[in-house]
Amino acid sequence: MAFPIKQIAPLLGSVSLRPFTEAELMFEVGDAMEGVWQLIYAILGRRTVEDTPTLGAQTQAAYMRDAASMAYRYAFDGVLPGSRDADAEFLDLTAFTLTARNAAELYGEVVPLCLEQTMATAILRKRLDDETIGEQFHVVVLEPDEVNFTLFEIAVLARMNEKSVRNATQPTSKDRLMTIKVGNRTLIEPHEALRWLKGRRGFKSTCLSED
């Protein structure tokens, strides 16, 4: 079952959903790894980088960059993971994302906002794909526990602010986003979400080809 996106990315609703490049994400992952290793040093009772062999750290950083690249390409470009072990990589990347935030808050490193946004978007895209084109790959930590989408979740997928999405639900909107009511909640069904998202420049449909 997927983590709630507010747990993966607690600041997502209060910061601008700006587009960022894969290169920016890679730089951020490297910085986040420094914070995680500081946390590991503390747990092991070591206080300096020199006290711990660096080969393992370098290998792990390269692995996390590769996993983050896969997540970025899926979340924002709609590129499926293919034959790689996406289940294990997304699990490790989720653990890294959650740990990196704690390490950043404890040791003053940069909070990995791009990584958190990437993971949150990947979770939402997986739900959208599963409900509209069928499950293309199985990843436990991305498995949806909901079917429909909130306005905030549509904003994350579209890389827009929630107010703009809400305005798109108004009857006067040129390309109206149709909503349903489930109790007191205003939600968007998956096929309607995909239809509307396809018209947004910040969203790319998932590519089913192998190219």
Any overview of this molecule?
The longest helix is centred in the N-terminal third of the chain and has 23 residues. Strands 1-2 form a two-stranded antiparallel ribbon. It is an all-alpha fold and 211 residues long. It is globular and about 60 Å long.
TL;DR?
This protein is mainly α and 211 residues long. The protein folds into two domains: 5-142, no CATH class; 151-197, no CATH class. It has helices spanning 5-8, 22-43, 55-77, 86-107, 113-132, 151-158, 162-168, 190-197, and strands at residues 180-182, 185-187.
Radius of gyration from the CA trace?
18 Å
Give the assembly state of these chains: single chain
Q: Provide the helix percentage.
A: 40-55%
The neighbouring-strand order within the major sheet is 1-2
Which runs of at least 5 residues are low in confidence (pLDDT < 50)?
none
- Indicate the overall shape: globular
Tell how many strands the DSSP assignment holds.
2
Q: Major sheet, described briefly?
A: 2 strands, antiparallel
Query: Structural class given helices, strands, pairing?
Result: mainly alpha
Q: What's the number of domains? A: 2
Number of helices in the DSSP assignment: 8
Name the beta content range. under 5%
Order of helices and strands: HHHHHHHEEH
Q: Round the mean pLDDT to the nearest integer and report it.
A: 85
The end-to-end span amounts to: 29 Å
